[in-house]
Design goal:
alpha+beta, Gyrase A, domain 2, Alpha-Beta Plaits, Elongation Factor Tu (Ef-tu), domain 3, 3 domains, six-stranded mixed sheet, six-stranded antiparallel beta barrel, 34% strand, globular
């Protein structure tokens, strides 16, 4: 059996009778009260997520001479101090090794936040591409909690003061929380106003307990998180993107800076010149049935692609999904049929995000 890692909050999840399951090599809470209830609470109040399974690396040195500037699909040196940027770590074929966020902590210091399942490989790949500087894996020492929802700012202001009120989207601040230095970033994965808090792993349980004392806050698991992220069209690594998928195929070219050097650039330029053979598409089901990962996508009786993510959307009251199909069919309004064994559901190609009513930029 797979030996699963656990976060510092495992005991708290068990005490709350959370449904636990493997995710990216970790034993993680899928739900507490229920996926729909937790989703609703996040859209209306403030939900607290244990995200301690994510990976964090620290780089110190000159970004250019040390080689960090050439590692990702975006420029690290152009990120203002106090800001973060999303993008990709690619292989030579242009496939996505991981999607990640880099936080510019100082002129010569950056924190790289990566996905749990890919963290070890990411570290090895980045380390191999660097030419200098100090590069350390701080995952074990770092805890991470996400508080998301329209009331999250009010909750944090009540607990820690007014500093949160002025923090704009994709900006972070370093501050003292519970006697320790913490990074608080106005980012998230839900489409709602929210904050990601990085602090010493030894302080995570204390912060969890403190925030849950506020009646506006409830815990939420990865089940609700998956519905929330898909409603706003965010990709999930391992499902919608992977090493066999390029940013161009995934409709994420906007996070690739072709004006700079990075591994995989030549492959992407060739793909852009030759044209795509498959393309990511979003679709809405005509009804309440849920499409699922690996279901077939059909057009006029022909199998033209595969579903990579699908859920029932409480906000749309219908099934929604993402998948890859022939580029000529990735046109808004194209009728599709989602099939799996005896299951068949009509769907229509639509725009992302599915849900636009969130408090993200409030």
């Amino acid at each position: 059996m797979e030996q699963l890692s656990t976060t510092p909050l495992c005991g708290r999840h068990e005490a709350l009778k959370a449904l636990m399951a493997p995710f990216g090599g970790w034993n993680m809470p899928i739900q507490y009260e229920g996926i729909i209830a937790e989703h609703k609470w996040c859209r209306e109040q403030a939900a607290l997520f244990d995200i301690c399974h994510m990976g964090e690396f620290m780089y110190e040195g000159d970004f250019e001479s040390g080689g960090l500037e050439d590692v990702f699909t975006f420029s690290v040196k152009s990120i203002p101090v106090g800001r973060s940027r999303y993008g990709f770590l690619l292989n030579e074929q242009g496939g996505i090794i991981d999607d990640l966020i880099v936080f510019r902590l100082a002129e010569d210091k950056a924190m790289i936040v990566v996905n749990a399942a890919t963290a070890d490989n990411d570290y090895a790949v980045i380390a191999e591409r660097l030419r200098g500087g100090s590069f350390t894996n701080i995952t074990a020492a770092t805890g991470k909690l996400d508080i998301q929802g329209p009331l999250s700012r009010a909750v944090l202001t009540t607990a820690f003061g007014d500093e949160f009120a002025k923090l704009p989207y994709f900006k972070f601040t370093t501050m003292n929380i519970l006697g320790s230095e913490a990074i608080v970033s106005r980012t998230g994965y839900t489409g709602e106003l929210g904050y990601e808090i990085f602090l010493p792993a030894a302080k995570v349980v204390e912060l969890w307990d403190l925030l849950l004392k506020d009646p506006r806050v409830k815990p939420a698991g990865l089940g609700a998180r998956d519905v929330l992220r898909l409603e706003v069209g965010y990709s999930l690594y391992g499902s919608d993107i992977d090493e066999a998928t390029t940013p161009l195929e995934a409709g994420l070219e906007g996070f690739v800076n072709f004006d700079k050097s990075f591994v995989g650039k030549e492959a992407l330029l060739r793909q852009r010149e030759q044209g795509l053979v498959r393309k990511k598409v979003a679709f809405e089901v005509l009804g309440r049935r849920s499409p699922r990962h690996h279901y077939d996508i059909c057009f006029s009786g022909e199998n033209v692609g595969t579903v990579t993510s699908g859920v029932f959307s409480p906000m749309l009251s219908s099934g929604i999904g993402i998948g890859f199909i022939r580029p000529d069919l990735a046109v808004i309004g194209t009728p599709l049929v989602i099939m799996h064994e005896r299951v068949s559901m009509e769907a229509t190609v639509c725009e992302l995000p599915f849900y636009r009513g969130g408090s993200l930029r409030s």
